[in-house]
Amino acid sequence: MVPNSDVGSVEGINLSKVTAWATEQIPGLQAPLEFSLIAGGHSNLTYRFVDATGAAYVLRRPPLGHVLESAHDMGREHRIVAALQGSDVPVAPALGLCTDVEVNEAPFYLMQFVEGEVLHDAETTQPVSVAQRQQISEHVIDVLAALHNTEPEAVGLGELGRKEAYLARQLKRWNKQWVATKTHEIPEMEATEQLLHERMPEQVGATIVHGDYRLGNLMVKDGRVAAVLDWELCTLGDPLADVGYLLNNWLSPDEEGAEKTPTGAGDFWSREQLVERYAERTGRDVSQVNYYRAFSHWRLAAITQGVYKRYLVGAMGENHDIDLEAYKEGVHSRAAAALELIQTVA
To answer: What pTM does this model have?
Structure first.
């Protein structure tokens, strides 16, 4: 029986309408459904829900309020997850896409819930054994290599985006977001953008690029990646951008901010080991990886600025505990790191 009220629902979920739609999509789903917002998502919102039998699922929807349209395309994200099922890239099984905004005021899609854990920071990583940290390191880079070795056409994603001029397109896209969401001046952003254009390496081939590949977006279990999450930034382009981004998030215990990263707990592979393994698995030239690290710092600064402004104006809802000054400072520090790195690239 579908409930006729939204008693017990959470912000962003029309309980009665979503329940009615979901029961038509998922065989055996039994109302009532109980939703909870999964912590850690700062862009598209992710909810876990269970039915009367205790079976668990996931719902993804855009942030509350007005957002930049292209960043939160549910249909596109669902298409990517569905296409990669059965490939060497582990993803949660996709169960249905709803584009009727009458159901939940915004498009959303459903997935099977995958058992495992997301390692958000050094503290949550402490219970993981040293042996499993080593295994996770190896599998993280192997899964990324598998993604980049997947032919887009072979999985129906050949038209996901333009393949050529990835870096130039990304610079244009995120500079546009930076300008649209800028709340204060950061000269390092403009200086870095100029150097990124001037020192841009030639793109060799094009692959599926995740766009936000890091341990915080991976579900892990028993020393392996159980599912790659958060595909909203995925496109076609230069795979080394994913490598640079992963390396920026792969901090050792002695680096500033290490406590905020899973690898800050120590006993993971070094960045050098990751790069060597990636080159071995893909055959790609990784000699200019520091350019991609600079690019990724700059891009993340632009993304973080967008998130900062959304929280500032309340577009992410009311139920969050976010230090806005820390976000603002994060944009500054990433912009400075990008400029420092790009200045070392010939």
So the answer is: 0.86
